[in-house]
Fold this protein.
Amino acid sequence: MPRAGLTPEAVVDTAINILDAEGVGAVTLAAVASRVGVAAPSLYKHVRNLDALRRLIAIRIFHELADRLTEVVMGRSRDEALRELLLAYRRYAIEFPHRYAALPQAPPNDPELAAAGERVVEVIFAVLRGYRLEGEQLVHAARCVRAAAHGFASLETLGGFGRPESVDASFDTLIRILTDGLGKGTD
């Protein structure tokens, strides 16, 4: 019988706590089992294996990120919406660098995981539709926004900006480049 109170959600909660504290490599079934006070084989009643646990973690993180992005763009449009989306994306990566690092960047061959990741893309699409983009142009613009947001977040969380100039000023420049470019292409 599964331990009373232990659920797949509780296992994921514990794994994310380990992830936040110690990084992606520290998330093992043995570490999770130890934290919840069961033997590692007991976790198999809640998650199939480590890959399944990592999948559940990624789904949770994609939903968290999509929820945050949705919240900040509601009631905003065009440049203001894009600015808030990019700022929220960066804040999430900075606040939770290990969670961010745990996100798969390639489209998964898993419908539920793909749907969770697609929620993030759909928020970006919604913002970019404010620039009257559709079809291929919408996809191209979304790819550029994702590449800019992910590239900046990845470099920043990995300590890739070593020069003394303000990283915030660099990010403001990135936002301005994107909003100016999108505005010129749709006005």
